Amino acid sequence: xxxxxxxxxxxxxxxxxxxxxxxxxxxxxxxxxxxxxxxxxxxxxxxxxxxxxxxxxxxxxxxxxxxxxxxxxxxxxxxxxxxxxxxxxxxxxxxxxxxxxxxxxxxxxxxxxxxxxxxxxxxxxxxxxxxxxxxxxxxxxxxxxxx
Length: 147
Description:
By secondary structure, the protein is an alpha+beta fold. It has one domain. The chain has three helices and ten strands. A hairpin with a 5-residue loop joins strand 7 (72-77) and strand 8.
């Protein structure tokens, strides 16, 4: 049991500020635009806004998050009141529409280890960026193995 706890790592996960929704759940984690760091007690309680959220992630969960995030889209509706909703493309009642936007382009994660201040507010690369980097590295490896 102790070995499992040792391998769990801290990650900052979240949504970019330009995301039309406030939170997206993927792979058992909830990505938020901001959360609060609460300190103090009673009347001395202080709340500090934190970009994203810092969570404990077991080793295999990152792959599950990435796979789940690939199937999330954000759909915006217009009319009297604009609305935005997250859909999972694997649901049987999901029908693709022209305005559906991949949610991965708004989501990010980053390992917290080694940061001086894990609560600093900095823009992070999105999961879409990470997926593109993985695809290009796979293509490079496939190209070099043919030589």
